[in-house]
């Protein structure tokens, strides 16, 4: 009864809450969904004669997927956990995909056709080591065997059920394993590696039972370095520790012999230390010195000779056996705008099996990986196809000199997102081909009418659906009246910028930023933020908007910064600059100059403030607003929050008038032994708030929301509780939340949740914060809301005061006024873990808000803010109910129809972005992770426009019927009048 | 047939071994996700659907997948209280609290957090299935009548067919008087309002 009662109540009152749902046939009208996999790490082809040709790939984002080799579509895909990186992968028995992941601890088999996991086994070992997976052709008791070396132990696992057949420890030796080799046709495996960096170790192991057959070692005083390259099943090539001497190590029949050849003997004017490019091509290996790649052949017993020296960027693919004793490998070289794919036989350097030149989009950068596959043509000659991975993480299939398909998998790792308006429709801009004529428009509506009247045939229904999905309106390249059409600009980890059209999600332009590419000055550049730089409004409407891309040279807070300015319409990089200071924070200021360029404040690691753009006009604005610029910094590690203001010009030796020193205004030091900062959230800068007053109908009262842009929400937990759930008891964990004014450092509110822990996800909007955390006592997730009200304005309730003008409503809101604030708070249980949370934002802020919750199941749930209202009580009065207060329940409802992602998943969800449309009722939602999802969302239905459902044809017919009826009645009345007169 | 027998064997074995201690590498949680027949749209679990179900430990610490028979396992789990969530499109699963105790390994303590129901064995079943779409109501004449256009047409029909009837039922004397009055007041008739109405 205790449970049924709230459910019953909920059922009654759920009718009060608008459920924002979708009919199944509306899918795809305003939303789109794109699936990606990330940068491919390994690829295995499955091209048997029967069945569909596919390629199995594992990626750097822990994804295993099979792709259709004809079109590049995903057959199935699995996203492993964040610390479950794939180490090795192969196909067994022609039907299972075997993956080794989690640093060699987890071995799984997936069914190749449908992706169902078949078995899983966990492999343990005594110590951490390199993980290697080798598919053998050995059969023990009718089980095919896969041999795995991981964590210092060699395992033989049955492919059929994942059972570990035997294992052998390599614990005692400090072996650094390099290769596990099975010579063809034998039933033993070699384990080769280095020990103590100057000793070569070779173990020969019986693959049937794990018995040690032979163990040999040989010392080399020069030491070993880097990786090895296998040149035959019993010979490998390594480099000494200086990188100047090549070592050919042969272990034929257990006898180890090491031959050394200095590189300078082979190559004259060797530029310096070399690195081996790991491969396993028979009789051939490659080394790289600076930018030069040298191919070296191994002849006879350790005789080395240079096959070719290549100065261009070269990528070498894996070796592929095409027939008995014949191995081929692929080379990809860049030549201007083209790439050149060459397939060579391993034992015959001078003869090329294939030489193709393919025109390549410059925005894809260099080739990073090549995977070669062959097929037999009808005339029994060999054909080749190559899968290449580019610098921008895209994946392409090359066959017969053309790109068969390409996938933009860079979009799987988005760093930051911003939006840009499209160009205004102008006379010069031709959009004619998108327009429909009136007849087609009417025909479309007649079809729709048939659909609503249930008169449509199945073909008609298909035509209606097609027409709705292909609506040309939504994919035009100009601004629309409702503000639905925009460009979503995303910055990816590869340093590429994409512009996606909100209508259909297509890529309008993409650009690999030169400033975020590897260069001499900047070795490992990474992108950080994307800010709208120039948004033309009134007087600069003819100019294109620009975005600012902020990056730094390597992953360290004191690395030098990189800026790049990109045109949002064309993707052209206007300019880029390598800065002479680091970037710790980017603060867009609420000031723009005469060309509508927004002023940005870049804070470097030394707490110096740098203003951009570097124009005299900007510095003028800064001087004017000098005393109004404040910022704060949060030091997570030592629990200090500090507030700063501008002080004076930098007194460094370089005269830079755009650089200012900061003065520390305040600091809050949290006790590091009891509190650790885990989350900080502020309000969005561009959020629109309609009204400060909140009418409380129950007691005819007005509350004033405390609306300040300078509020910071900080959540801290006990240091012990900052790790995962399950490792701490409720007694020793707590969660403390603060609301801090970032100008004065005043703590407006502090609250402790005992027995709770992180992770905390929070969202701050208007005068409220909603945050999600884990309650250890109840062992459930909780969501809390805090609302802040301004008490100093509360005495403005009297209408007479307002009339006479004795109110303080027009007094400016200042952080220094130290107004009295009142906070209200309430907590509720919530079922799921959270990955992201955001709130809808509309153009004027009138529409009531909904929270957008990214759940652990990678779905996005819309939850009405009214469920998180501190004024909810178990029995609201009649007046309160009329006001829309929902009776209090202990947990927040999950209504399946309010999943805005409906039956789709945004795999690996990372963030949710909301952008207001021009139409007040609607907000645009973009959720990204591995997948991208975009939809229009109306928090309280589209009250300000006709819906897609509206039937114009029915309206027309009604009007026509009415007009006809008027004429008929007119004729009738005339006739009657005439008869009356005759009478 | 052999596979069914193996499945049964697994069921028998697994009931006792929900939490077992691995040899020195923490504990192992074994469980099963069971989707009862009859739930879901077609009454059957679609084959592709089962393979996309994820079992998530402690909000993403470990992600595991299901075997064809619905079993899953988490290896190397330290003792403590853990939370298991099941992410499956189309079904609503309650998170499950699992206590792995260091003192008496093998003892299962699992409870659904949504309704605090204890589980004797770790078999997770969906609380309900989730339908993400509204069901479109079938076409009915009432909907058309109730729409604004329908109401407009309806009102017009009332005026056209019922008003003359009302007029007819009036007393002819009274009617004449009313018409007189109207003429005196100069209220234009419908005919005179329309073009061409003034001619006669």
Automatic annotation (TrEMBL), chain A:
It holds the Pfam family EMC1_C. GO terms for cellular component: EMC complex. It comes from the Eukaryota. InterPro entries: Beta-prop_EMC1_1st (IPR058545), EMC1 (IPR026895), EMC1_C (IPR011678), Quinoprotein_ADH-like_sf (IPR011047), WD40/YVTN_repeat-like_dom_sf (IPR015943). It is found in: Endoplasmic reticulum membrane. The keyword GTP-binding does not apply. One of its GO terms (biological process) is protein folding in endoplasmic reticulum. It is a single-pass type I membrane protein. The chain crosses the membrane at residues 950-973. Residues 22-409 form the EMC1 first beta-propeller domain. Residues 1-22 form the signal peptide. Keywords: Endoplasmic reticulum, Glycoprotein, Membrane, Signal, Transmembrane, Transmembrane helix. Residues 765-982 form the ER membrane protein complex subunit 1 C-terminal domain. Gene3D superfamilies: YVTN repeat-like/Quinoprotein amine dehydrogenase. Component of the ER membrane protein complex (EMC). Belongs to the EMC1 family. This is ER membrane protein complex subunit 1. It comes from Hibiscus syriacus. The lineage of its organism: Eukaryota, Viridiplantae, Streptophyta, Embryophyta, Tracheophyta.
